[in-house]
């Protein structure tokens, strides 16, 4: 018999955010509002992505971002949508976006939070209809409300994150986030314009059959990684690599697996960015009983030196990360 789908109707993300807020009597609703601002922007971006091929916005702009990477129209659209939603929500004093060289001043010096965001990661996959994602982190500012924000506000270790999460624009659009009390996943129902709780209390399996890596730089990987990869092959594990970080991360989070982006000749410090890619995913991984390291230490404990810093990134099932660590020389 067809199992009747018990649609978790009623547990919308808005209600969920509100419930979490009531669990913190001192909460004044500022973080709740901030999260709602991110939810709103994600709905707009989901719609833009789902019709990109029709509206001709899946292509390139004439611009390059300051990393020297060609900017796609949707990179710019996502950056504008998320930053303007956060500015309108008035809960954030400043924003660091992967798409911008400098810090964005929101004009709300009284606000007590800062947001670090990769508005659209993996966007080179859009025009071939492969899933892409948004990655975000929320921190309390160190500088005092009312004063100017400082770089120090943005160079906090990942352990200081108040909230972290991602939106995966995939077969369905999902928002997965944590405020330090476990990881919950919400699936977007476009016809209702609502996210519903679909993956409560996500925990990452301790082990998995998947390892996600681009091996084109294999010759210059650290020996620790080369030895680990040989053990994966010996154990007959499967490679699964979409080339879209949020996609690879999310699959491994639910099914078990490990994602590896090591340092190499091409990327001396790895390719991925500590502040707006790795820290948020590392918090999600750890909150889901997984693990994230730079090869030797937890990602979340790294003291950032500058805001576009890259790190080697290994994240996934705790036993697989332990195995990788076991090969460190
Ligand atoms: P490579 C996309 O550009 C990205 O930042 C991640 O989304 C993805 O996992 C990685 O880079 C892919 O990098 O070197 O394998 O193309």
From TrEMBL:
Q: Which NCBIfam families match?
A: PRK09293.1-1 (NF006778)
- Please name the gene that encodes this protein: fbp
Q: Which organism is it from?
A: Echinicola pacifica
> Where is this protein localized, as stated in its record?
Cytoplasm
Record flagged with keyword Mitochondrion:
no
Name of this chain's protein: Fructose-1,6-bisphosphatase class 1
The record's listing under Gene3D superfamilies reads:
3.40.190.80, Fructose-1,6-Bisphosphatase, subunit A, domain 1
The record's section on SUPFAM superfamilies has:
Carbohydrate phosphatase (SSF56655)
Q: Which InterPro entries match?
A: FBPase_C_dom, FBPase_class-1, FBPase_N, FBPtase
């Amino acid at each position: 018999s067809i199992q009747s789908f018990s649609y978790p109707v009623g547990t919308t993300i808005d209600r969920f955010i509100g419930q979490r807020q009531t669990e913190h009597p001192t909460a004044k609703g500022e973080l709740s509002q901030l999260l709602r601002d991110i939810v709103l922007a994600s709905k707009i971006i989901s719609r833009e992505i789902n019709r990109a091929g029709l509206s001709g916005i899946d292509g390139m702009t004439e611009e390059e971002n300051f990393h020297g990477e060609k900017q796609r129209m949707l990179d710019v659209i996502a950056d504008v949508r998320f930053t303007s939603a956060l500015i309108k929500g008035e809960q954030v004093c400043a924003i660091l976006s992967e798409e911008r060289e400098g810090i964005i001043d929101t004009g709300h010096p009284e606000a007590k939070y800062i947001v670090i965001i990769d508005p659209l990661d993996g966007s080179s996959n859009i025009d071939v209809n492969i899933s892409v994602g948004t990655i975000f982190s929320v921190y309390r500012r160190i500088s005092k409300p009312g004063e100017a924000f400082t770089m120090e506000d943005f160079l906090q270790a990942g352990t200081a994150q108040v909230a972290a999460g991602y939106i995966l624009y995939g077969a369905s659009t999902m928002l997965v986030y944590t405020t330090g009390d476990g990881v919950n996943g919400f699936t977007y129902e476009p016809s209702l314009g609502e996210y519903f709780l679909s993956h409560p209390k996500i925990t990452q399996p301790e082990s998995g059959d998947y390892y996600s890596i681009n091996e084109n730089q294999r010759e210059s990987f650290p020996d620790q990684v080369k030895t680990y990869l040989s053990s994966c092959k010996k154990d007959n594990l499967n490679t699964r690599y979409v080339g879209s970080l949020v996609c690879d991360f999310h699959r491994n989070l639910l099914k078990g697996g490990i994602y590896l982006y090591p340092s190499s000749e091409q990327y001396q410090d790895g390719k991925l960015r500590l502040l707006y890619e790795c820290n948020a995913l590392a918090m999600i991984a750890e909150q889901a009983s997984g693990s994230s390291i730079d090869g030797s230490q937890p990602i979340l404990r790294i003291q950032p030196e500058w805001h576009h810093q890259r790190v080697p990134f290994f994240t996934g099932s705790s036993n697989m990360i332990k195995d990788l660590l076991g090969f460190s020389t």
